[in-house]
Write a structure and sequence with these properties.
- There is one protein chain.
- With about 180 residues, the protein is an alpha+beta fold.
- Helix content is about 30%, strand content about 15%.
- It has one domain (about 5-170).
- The strands form two sheets. The protein has a three-stranded antiparallel sheet with strand order 1-4-5. Strands 2-3 form a two-stranded antiparallel sheet.
- Strand 2 and strand 3 form a beta hairpin.
- The chain is globular and about 45 Å long.
Length: about 180
């Protein structure tokens, strides 16, 4: 099982901040730590409560975290608005207690299944990078982790291309246009 601790790192980037990430936790551990303060018993959800109740994903108010990958989150927000697109990327339709997920993506234009675990670097009681969706869906941090895994590590996805991210998740040709605005 690959975890953040085993990813290659580059010199001078996030590596100098790794002392911040002394802890790596699974979502259930984070929810238990938070609910201990609030006296709640929370359950981890892959797609969130809105999906369970209405069949659609929440596509707004994403929190970025410590890496500059807002280009990636905007692509994921757009894909979340397309009915069932994001849910069909996952081979699982419920959160598995094992915490292993196979995700269909496109690497160099070819469909590939990328496997990720749900062990996230944390800062306090929150994931250090993309946070779960406002309704508690963990699909967003898992997709970010899959993108980081294919691109070597989280540091390598800082300040990327929307077109590249769109190709990775859809397999469709994409390009960016410059404007004078």
């Amino acid at each position: 099982m690959l975890s953040w601790k085993e990813y290659p790192r580059t010199i001078g980037g996030l590596a100098k901040y790794l002392s911040w990430f002394k802890d790596f936790r699974r979502p259930q551990d984070l929810l238990n730590m938070q609910s201990h303060k609030e006296n709640e018993n929370s359950v981890v959800s892959l797609f969130g409560t809105h999906h369970e109740q209405h069949g659609t994903l929440v596509s707004t108010n994403f929190e970025q975290g410590a890496v500059g990958d807002n280009y990636l989150l905007t692509i994921l927000a757009a894909l979340a608005e397309r009915k069932d697109f994001v849910t069909k990327m996952f081979h699982q339709q419920k959160y598995t207690k094992e915490g292993i997920f196979a995700i269909k993506v496109y690497v160099k234009g070819r469909p590939e299944d990328v496997t990720v675990d749900d062990l996230f670097p944390v800062y306090g009681v929150q994931p250090a990078f993309a946070k779960p969706t406002p309704d508690g869906g963990w699909w967003l941090p898992l997709l970010e982790k899959a993108y980081a895994k294919v691109n070597v590590n989280y540091e390598m996805i800082s300040s990327g291309s929307q077109a590249e991210a769109a190709r990775f998740f859809t397999g469709a040709p994409a390009r960016e246009f410059e404007t004078n605005f």
